[in-house]
Design goal:
Layout: E1 6-11, H1 19-29, E2 33-38, H2 42-45, H3 48-55, H4 74-80, E3 83-89, H5 91-99, H6 105-112, E4 117-121, H7 125-129, H8 131-142, E5 146-147, H9 154-160, H10 168-179, E6 193-198, E7 203-206, E8 209-211, H11 218-229, E9 233-238, E10 250-254, H12 258-268, E11 274-277, E12 284-286, E13 306-308, H13 312-319, E14 325-332, H14 337-346, E15 351-356, E16 368-369, E17 371-375, E18 380-382, E19 386-387, H15 388-403
Parallel strand pairs: 1-2, 1-3, 3-4, 4-5, 6-9, 6-11, 9-10, 11-14, 14-15
Antiparallel strand pairs: 7-8, 12-13, 15-17, 16-19, 17-18
The structure holds ligand PMT.
């Protein structure tokens, strides 16, 4: 997707500047032509030589070349580019961009640039959360810039914080996705809003233990990527998994328990055109989670009393408006068609995707799945074993018949 694309990479004065080397390397590997523009502060963190070597082009940072006094024309540069990426973008640079403070080559190039601009902020969490920063970012967003915020992954939100720069791999994926050819009109989901649940839920026993299951989130995340690639706006409600959503059209809501997933799903559903409920939601939770860590020295045996969680699929089935499409999954251990058909009708689904652990390579954790779609018209469509990205394509193509 990036073959022969001309990319200006703006680098500003942040410790994350070292990550930009991986971005240049990735862009060049994909066949892009890269012109690096560095601010003076960026050069305090990493030398221009690194970038001129990787990009095979002299780095620009001043209005004039120090070598021969020639003028670097920011207007020509802005017109040359197919895209501009500013990564890392410091609070100071973002402030200058939002206020047209044209006091360096990077900002003048930005202001002259007619191509789409991608901005990957890098700063500490408090700076990122400051209202002035958020105002600048929303202004840049409203002016058509693409802000690449770190994925709301478990790790990002809990350990590292939202202000850190997104990883080079994801930045490259976002750029490549931008240049990907649009989906064929026959498969397009442009303008559709789709809710997807994914992963397991954790039901707390005590502060260090939970009841969970083996769901990795792979099936649900593949569905989310497929929908986003076909042009849909995706809300992905995910239980605790180690995956990251790559496509910028995926808004991720991270939850832990079935109750949190229920709340997020019922709040989001009224605005959606369709929902695909792929999460392995715990059916039960401990009635009374312990606030203290349970100690084996204090009791030889332990009985947990479990109570039923709310059924998200059945609740959305009851709320469903005639134009909305609701898709469930059924994980069974045998042939499962009878049970899946019962779930299809009982939860008022439009179709259900049956996967059974009796088939090797199907269900939890693995990269493949073997599914059968059963729909409310009585159709039963079996598919062979495929990787989960291909399975997601089959499911979303079926969804397309209901939606469009
Ligand atoms: O995440 P992976 O490792 O890739 O694995 C994918 C998967 C095996 C988890 C997935 O393909 C799958 O089958 N998900 C549904 C598993 C499941 O919980 O099935 P179920 O038969 O228990 O539930 C039926 C449907 O009701 C499902 O759509 C489920 O999301 C939904 N449900 C269940 C219980 C509950 N309290 N609320 C719900 O919405």
């Amino acid at each position: 997707m990036l073959q022969e694309k001309r990319i200006i990479l703006g680098i500003t004065g942040s410790i994350a500047a070292y990550k930009s080397a991986a971005i240049v390397r990735g862009l060049v590997k994909e066949g892009a032509e890269v012109q690096v523009v560095m601010t003076a502060a960026a050069k305090e963190f990493i030398t221009p030589l690194t970038f001129s070597t990787l990009s095979r082009k002299p780095v620009i940072s001043d209005f004039f070349s120090r070598r021969d006094g020639s003028w670097h024309n920011h207007v020509d540069l802005g017109l040359w580019a197919d895209a501009m990426l500013i990564a890392p973008a410091t609070a100071s640079t973002i402030g200058k961009m939002a206020n047209a403070v044209a006091d360096n080559m990077l900002i003048t190039t930005y202001l002259s640039c007619k191509a789409p601009v991608f901005v990957a902020p890098a700063m500490d969490l408090d700076m990122f959360a400051h209202p002035a920063m958020q105002r600048n970012l929303s202004f840049l967003r409203s002016a058509g810039n693409h802000i690449i915020e770190p994925t709301d992954g478990e790790l990002a939100s809990r350990l590292i914080g939202k202000g850190r720069m997104e990883e080079p791999d994801r930045i490259l994926t976002i750029l490549a996705g931008f240049f990907a050819p649009p989906p064929s009109p026959a498969l397009s989901l442009t303008g559709k809003k789709i809710l997807i649940t994914a992963g397991p839920t954790y039901e707390q026993i005590d502060p260090v233990r939970f009841i969970g299951n083996y769901s990795s989130g792979k099936m649900g995340f593949s569905l989310a990527e497929t929908c986003a690639t076909r042009g849909a706006e995706v809300t992905l409600i995910s239980g605790p998994v180690s995956l990251e959503a790559k496509h910028p059209a995926i808004r991720r809501i991270s939850v832990e328990s079935a109750e949190e997933m229920y709340r997020a799903a019922t709040e989001s559903f009224p605005l959606m055109d369709a929902a695909l409920l792929c999460a392995a939601v715990a059916d039960y939770r401990p009635e009374q989670p312990s606030v203290e860590k349970l100690k084996r020295e204090q009791q030889k045996e332990l009985t947990l009393r479990l109570i039923a969680n709310k059924d998200i699929a059945a609740t959305l089935g009851a709320l469903k408006r005639p134009q909305q499409v609701l898709v469930g999954f059924a994980l069974e251990i045998d042939d499962g068609k009878v049970t899946a058909t019962d779930k299809l009708h009982r939860k008022n689904l439009d179709f259900i995707v049956l996967n059974s652990l009796k088939n090797k390579g199907a269900g939890f954790r693995c990269d493949t799945n073997k599914v059968t779609i059963l729909d409310r018209t009585g159709a039963v469509i079996p598919f062979p074993l495929k990787n989960k990205a291909e399975v997601a394509e089959d499911i979303i193509t079926h969804l397309h018949h209901f939606l469009c």
